[in-house]
From TrEMBL:
<comment type="similarity">
    <text>Belongs to the bacterial solute-binding protein 2 family.</text>
</comment>
<dbReference type="InterPro" id="IPR050555">
    <property type="entry name" value="Bact_Solute-Bind_Prot2"/>
</dbReference>
<protein>
    <submittedName>
        <fullName>Sugar ABC transporter substrate-binding protein</fullName>
    </submittedName>
</protein>
<feature type="domain" description="Periplasmic binding protein">
    <location>
        <begin position="56"/>
        <end position="298"/>
    </location>
</feature>
<dbReference type="Pfam" id="PF13407">
    <property type="entry name" value="Peripla_BP_4"/>
</dbReference>
<dbReference type="InterPro" id="IPR025997">
    <property type="entry name" value="SBP_2_dom"/>
</dbReference>
<dbReference type="InterPro" id="IPR028082">
    <property type="entry name" value="Peripla_BP_I"/>
</dbReference>
């Protein structure tokens, strides 16, 4: 994943995302009735939002109640509203049940499916059935390395190993020497890649700590117990915003000076980074993942466009610290970062 060829591919993916972003800015710059009418004519000619209504299903491994996935949905629903798409959402952390939800979408004969490959082997066969039924599939968030191989036409997300490497460097920068990497969902390949990447660049000792992410009191108890048992731990890296806040509480309860860094963001986390309770966050821009997945399928259906050229379209990592958190506060407050 760190070969020259891989970097070149990731560069092309960033380029594709940048070109798309530039196109959005150009469209947004149109003003006046003449510009609006021209856009409407172009949209109609291309089979745009005035064309046939599409039905797109998103099936993820985590869902409502998780602030990260709430942001993903906001992006997806914004794109759906723009593109005249009926958006269907479902989720289940169990790989087998997630596959059943994908099959249900296939049975509904939807026009496109968005999936996460957190547990890729569980979804391999059902995604093959979707593509055999001529239903295009794109993936987001997890499974960039298997996405194309399993039949998805595009992937939107960050390279989790590279994001982990960025987190490892940040943990070293803030002065941690012995750290925990808290994995809240066993078997999730993306989370494991994050910790592996962090260990690679950290330079000190980093140990995985597995917790039950669906039970936050148990998460707190597990982190607290580890910090009490090993006073040498001076850093905690969590893999989701809600777990970072819990880790801060655990450090207080254990009378530990361990510094907390995390992946992903929400409004509360921005406040915690600003006041120094959390040292940094690795942001993969979930709103962008949801938006581009739906919009990408719309582009494919209406104009034959495919983003990424067979490579993942990267949405992160972006490092958020006390130095730049305030600039993102407004976006986080409205629930889009």
């Amino acid at each position: 994943m760190t070969s020259t060829k891989g970097r070149s591919g990731r560069g092309r993916a960033r380029g594709a995302a940048a070109v798309l972003a530039a196109g959005v800015l150009v469209l947004g710059a149109c003003s006046g009735s003449g510009g609006k009418k021209a856009e409407e004519r172009e949209s109609k000619a291309a089979g745009g939002a005035s064309g046939p209504r599409l039905k797109i299903a998103m099936v993820t491994h985590s869902g409502p109640g998780d602030t990260f996935w709430d942001i993903v949905q906001k992006g997806a629903r914004a794109a759906a509203a723009k593109d005249n798409v009926e958006f269907l959402y479902s989720a289940d952390p169990d790989g087998g049940k997630q596959a059943q939800l994908v099959q249900a979408a296939v049975d509904k004969k939807v026009d496109g499916i968005v999936v996460t490959f957190a547990k890729p082997d569980a979804l391999k066969d059902v995604v093959a059935r979707a593509t055999a039924a001529r239903i295009p599939v794109v993936s987001i968030n997890s499974g960039a390395d298997v996405s194309a191989r399993y039949g998805a036409v595009a992937h939107f997300g960050q390279d989790e190993a590279i994001a982990g490497e960025a987190a490892g460097r940040e943990m070293a920068r803030i002065g941690a020497k012995k750290a925990l990497c808290v994995i809240h969902e066993q078997g999730n390949v993306g989370l494991e890649d994050r910790c592996a990447g962090a260990r690679k660049t950290f330079g000190g000792q980093m140990q995985n700590l597995f917790v039950q992410g669906t039970n936050m009191p148990q998460v707190k108890s597990s982190i607290t117990a580890k910090l009490q048992a090993d006073k040498g731990v001076d850093g905690v890296l969590t893999l989701g915003a809600p777990f970072a806040a819990t880790a801060v509480d655990s450090a207080k309860e254990a009378s530990s000076d361990a510094k907390v860094g995390t992946f992903d963001m929400n409004k509360d986390l921005i406040d915690a980074v600003k006041d120094g309770r959390i040292w940094f966050a690795v942001d993969q821009q979930p709103y962008l993942q949801g938006y581009e997945a739906v919009d990408g399928l719309w582009l494919l259906k209406h104009n034959g466009n495919v983003l990424g050229g067979g490579r993942p379209v990267l949405t992160g990592p972006a490092i958020v610290t006390k130095a730049n958190a305030a600039a993102l506060e407004g976006f986080a407050s409205r629930g889009t970062r």
